[in-house]
Amino acid sequence: MQLLSEGDEPVPEFLKVKTAEEIVEMVRSFAPLEAEIVSVQEASGRVLAEDVTAPEPVPHFARATMDGYAVRARDTFGAGESLPALLEVIGEVAMGRPAETAVRPGTAAAIPTGGMLPDGADAVVMVEYTQPLDAHAIEVTRPVAPGDNVLQVGDDVALGEKVLERGRKLRPQDVGLLAAIGMEEVRVFRRPRVAIISTGDEIVPPETRDLPPGKIRDINTYVVASQVREAGGRVGTIQVVADDLDELEAVCREALAAHDVVVLSGGSSVGIRDFTIQVLERFPGSELLAHGVAIRPGKPTILARLGEKILWGLPGQPASAMIVFTAFVRPCLLRLQGVENAGNLETNVRQAELARNIPSVHGRADYVRVSLSNDKGRLTADPVFGKSAMISTLSKADGYVIVPEHVEGLEAGTLVTVHLFSSP
Amino acid sequence: MQLLSEGDEPVPEFLKVKTAEEIVEMVRSFAPLEAEIVSVQEASGRVLAEDVTAPEPVPHFARATMDGYAVRARDTFGAGESLPALLEVIGEVAMGRPAETAVRPGTAAAIPTGGMLPDGADAVVMVEYTQPLDAHAIEVTRPVAPGDNVLQVGDDVALGEKVLERGRKLRPQDVGLLAAIGMEEVRVFRRPRVAIISTGDEIVPPETRDLPPGKIRDINTYVVASQVREAGGRVGTIQVVADDLDELEAVCREALAAHDVVVLSGGSSVGIRDFTIQVLERFPGSELLAHGVAIRPGKPTILARLGEKILWGLPGQPASAMIVFTAFVRPCLLRLQGVENAGNLETNVRQAELARNIPSVHGRADYVRVSLSNDKGRLTADPVFGKSAMISTLSKADGYVIVPEHVEGLEAGTLVTVHLFSSP
């Protein structure tokens, strides 16, 4: 029932209508999926299932942090412009190799930034504070203390130091850190497998060649699939099913067996054809966590658990389905991947200035679609009006703004938080 | 030379030192790669290579936008509470199917939201404004005009209407729109193939088991590979090469043959071992577009064209390489994928309040790494200090803030633009 009315008729009290906050609270209580081991090269975007401690120190040898000369600091004590210290240059440290000769009292070795400190040396004199006398001797015009211009073993990362915490979503720079400490593999939470099902007698698969009269192409399977991928989920079965209880039950049964999450759209309107609920009743042990959310649009949202599996019922209207996915299903998928505070530290948000007034009706949180424009870093959010059945308005919107339940609208110029439908 | 000094010694004038703005300007002038055809299902994140016009109208039949009765509007003219119009109900429109009977004068057909308007009907009376008299008749208590509560053919998307423009990076909602108009395939720009090469005598591949003294694990190949993937590029060859001119030339030659872009890191410091420039000199027809950028860090950046191919030389310091990648290579990869205004409409930015003062030296743009924290949507940017050779600081940073050339630092509390290293 892709286009069932989402009118304002009251939802019967016996139904489990929840607030948006209650839904997010439930999602946050879900346990992550089990852990698996992946190579560090493939770990970007995955979520750590364990704290990572450094199996080796960085650096694992004392390194020069400046171009100059490796010396024994005591040989430079008291050195100055007027009374430079004279040192014999016994060689040059090559990058990536141990020095061939130790630095003994009265001697120095040329060393590049990053070079390995020779035995005997305990500091580096910057080249700026030296004068070559001849090919084999320099004058040092400023003293150094032991450790000056040297990164000691473990100065950057100590052996056994905790460098990254469980629950961290790995970014490219975190992968770099893992590479630096010699990690080849890392334990991360498994990504959820997601089945996507659209129901409705009027719905045909988008690839249908000649559209029969009365039918419309399904949109939600494509949109939801793209959103699932962006949220780190793995898309499995994608299917369009007619409003037939037995068929829907069979499809759901198969989908639940092979996936962690099933996302249904359509059929969940609190109305004449509430197939999703009827299907759930056929699964023993299924637990209806929410039947309706007090937001507009999105009222007919369903959330159920079936053992370890999760079933979401989204409104059939594509715009409503996108909003509900962004607000609840995305945090759920992130949470299953082990992200801490999914839905709390919502990263896909922008602050923007409202371009026009948004009227709103007291009594239910309004999720109003907006388009963003960027004028030299200053973001403006323009409400996208038009019937939510209109497909053309779908791609005009970048995200939504929430007008809270007890607010009667927002004025132009207000700074608002825009929840993005997708990563930019 | 991963850890060559990026000191402050002046760059000789004959070198092609550019400002950050000049680099971005050059990148913006690059032509996108050729187009290819992909299925709409796989099109999310890709960039349109042509305007898309609707091959069919949406809806392709007149649809009810409310639950109610399909009627001939003239039959309701003058109807009201006191004088309702009496209509015979001749049937019910089923979802997804043409009506079986036409609506003749004096009759009506029950119709659900989204149902197909029967022949003869030109409006829908909302169920709220009707009263059933018996099973076969209703009273209409409010008149409708022709077209009321009906979405006409093409009202949402007209046949031949331009719905999406060339250069648009397709988001899930755009894919939904393409599905709605029956597109199965779409022309998008090809994604660039990117080779990643790290040079330096002290560098060993990250997966090296026992780290020899004087050597460090390569980090840049892993970080750059993750960043390339995030920017939509396809990672090809990944290689670590010693500072050997002939070997580097051979590796670059192979990489240029099989990729659109080669990203070298290390070896590009304007210093003693400027292998990248020497390698470029061995390729006839290579054009050095930039040898140095007036930002800190990032000074030793190289940009060259070799026919259709692009070569970037990044500084060897991982933190510097990340900054240069984010500022220039990422916009370049986006531009090759056909994104308009890459580097101008930079979407991976956040406004944040600076937590501490940032001192800066007059005369060069400072790119200062910051970590972000989020307190109820209010972002704070905290500068990450510490030697840029320190790997441990790498993963503490979320992005960078630019202190412009002629500004001597930024004060705590300033609202700054943070350029993110990666999508959150």
Task: Describe this structure as you would to a colleague.
The structure is a homodimer of 424-residue chains. Chain A is 17% helix and 31% strand. The model of chain A is unreliable at 1-13 and 268-272 (pLDDT under 50). In chain A, β24 (365-375) and β25 form a beta hairpin. In chain A, α1 runs parallel beside α6 (318-336), α3 runs parallel beside α6 (318-336) and α4 (245-258) crosses α5 (275-281). The longest helix of chain A is centred in the C-terminal third of the chain and has 19 residues, at 318-336. In chain A, the strands form eight sheets. The first copy, chain A, has a six-stranded mixed β-sheet, with no helix packed on it. In chain A, strands 16-13-17-21-20-18 form a six-stranded mixed β-sheet, sandwiched between helices. The first copy, chain A, has helices spanning 20-29, 172-180, 220-230, 245-258, 275-281, 318-336; strands spanning 35-39, 52-53, 63-64, 68-71, 85-92, 107-111, 123-126, 130-134, 137-140, 150-151, 162-164, 185-189, 193-199, 203-204, 216-217, 234-241, 261-265, 286-291, 295-296, 302-306, 309-314, 349-354, 358-359, 365-375, 378-383, 399-403, 409-410, 415-420. Chain A has six helices and 28 strands. The two termini of chain A are 31 Å apart. By secondary structure, chain A is α/β, with parallel strands linked by helices. The first copy, chain A, folds into four domains: 20-34 and 191-336, MoaB/Mog-like domain (Molybdenum Cofactor Biosythetic Enzyme, Chain A, 3-Layer(aba) Sandwich); 36-58 and 155-189, Alpha-Beta Complex (Molybdopterin biosynthesis moea protein, domain 2); 63-151, Molybdopterin biosynthesis moeA protein, domain 3 (Beta Complex); 349-420, MoeA, C-terminal, domain IV (Beta-clip), CATH 2.40.340.10. Chains A and B meet through α2, β15 and α3 of A and α2, β15 and α3 of B.
